[in-house]
């Protein structure tokens, strides 16, 4: 999360409370299209978090339909281990999500100080599985589970947040799988690295397994400074458990981190596992009646709308810090990755053919399977680096990066010439990343 920006409390400035209800305070964080503030409900003094979205920045039809769909589905979910959305408000230019304020901070901050005992790790893992299993029952798949997206409340209980990369069942294709590549590299499931589609529930279980390893060991099971080397470890399931880890936990982790999604443990099987069941009590809760409101109107109307609700939601829309979609709107990003079934030799050969058609440019070979496209334009020198890494016997990952020059030129050359040439007949290749952040793939 970005460093907190201190701002004067709302009472110290002339602006009245937002909608007459909320005194807006310090900035808690920001993403590509939204900012999140701490605020106080003037009616009862309760602390809340308010996410402010600029409508102009999400003006595309696709993003708007995604927002509407996710609100429609998420309002039906309510769970004690999921961050709650209190209400949705809107004006001509902005949308406001008033959410539960979880003041304990990220679980990541706590685990960064040292590993947990198995008992404490089990407590948090039980709460995580309770929330994730509930989501799956409603056809919602998180797809970016990691300690940074798990918050702790004042009682030390876990709250799942940041569903910016979530998918729902109506996104599943006719083959029964999801196909969009999403997630944070160290937590991404091996099947996401292929182009054959994946089960959203299975990839969430894998991420839960990585989280459990981190909680009880204190570091990542799959880690390498070279991203492609880390992907290979994930794909092949190469990790080690410390000698001091209990045999029960080792066995349980091996089922969570099974590289074969068909045999990977399910949520129901997790709940029956001997290690998991110790001290576990399924939390009972009752869903209250939901106050209906028109989701389309909240998003699209030019009137001020106060859609008070009692429904729960997560981080409803794809506007979180973990998802950088800036490439849809500007030319600020300068890297891209593509997974495709082919050989490194053929990839380099195709890029060489592209280079011949670029004016005032030459291709320079680097060590192993790497090249640099160098040249001059009116705006100055440009250098585009391209490296090919073998992920499996039949699949490679192509990593392209602007090393000098204009980002807009890099984007245009990649999208219109380099990527189509690399794909060739492989039009189903997966684009792993196209952003500057590098923290998440989508």
Automatic annotation (TrEMBL):
<dbReference type="GO" id="GO:0106310">
    <property type="term" value="F:protein serine kinase activity"/>
</dbReference>
<keyword id="KW-0418">Kinase</keyword>
<feature type="binding site">
    <location>
        <position position="51"/>
    </location>
    <ligand>
        <name>ATP</name>
    </ligand>
</feature>
<keyword id="KW-0723">Serine/threonine-protein kinase</keyword>
<dbReference type="GO" id="GO:0005524">
    <property type="term" value="F:ATP binding"/>
</dbReference>
<dbReference type="Pfam" id="PF00069">
    <property type="entry name" value="Pkinase"/>
</dbReference>
<dbReference type="InterPro" id="IPR018451">
    <property type="entry name" value="NAF/FISL_domain"/>
</dbReference>
<dbReference type="InterPro" id="IPR008271">
    <property type="entry name" value="Ser/Thr_kinase_AS"/>
</dbReference>
<keyword id="KW-0464">Manganese</keyword>
<dbReference type="GO" id="GO:0004674">
    <property type="term" value="F:protein serine/threonine kinase activity"/>
</dbReference>
<keyword id="KW-0067">ATP-binding</keyword>
<dbReference type="InterPro" id="IPR000719">
    <property type="entry name" value="Prot_kinase_dom"/>
</dbReference>
<dbReference type="InterPro" id="IPR011009">
    <property type="entry name" value="Kinase-like_dom_sf"/>
</dbReference>
<dbReference type="InterPro" id="IPR017441">
    <property type="entry name" value="Protein_kinase_ATP_BS"/>
</dbReference>
<feature type="domain" description="NAF">
    <location>
        <begin position="306"/>
        <end position="330"/>
    </location>
</feature>
<comment type="similarity">
    <text>Belongs to the protein kinase superfamily. CAMK Ser/Thr protein kinase family. SNF1 subfamily.</text>
</comment>
<feature type="domain" description="Protein kinase">
    <location>
        <begin position="22"/>
        <end position="276"/>
    </location>
</feature>
<keyword id="KW-0808">Transferase</keyword>
<dbReference type="Pfam" id="PF03822">
    <property type="entry name" value="NAF"/>
</dbReference>
<protein>
    <recommendedName>
        <fullName>non-specific serine/threonine protein kinase</fullName>
        <ecNumber>2.7.11.1</ecNumber>
    </recommendedName>
</protein>
<keyword id="KW-0547">Nucleotide-binding</keyword>
<dbReference type="InterPro" id="IPR004041">
    <property type="entry name" value="NAF_dom"/>
</dbReference>
<dbReference type="GO" id="GO:0007165">
    <property type="term" value="P:signal transduction"/>
</dbReference>
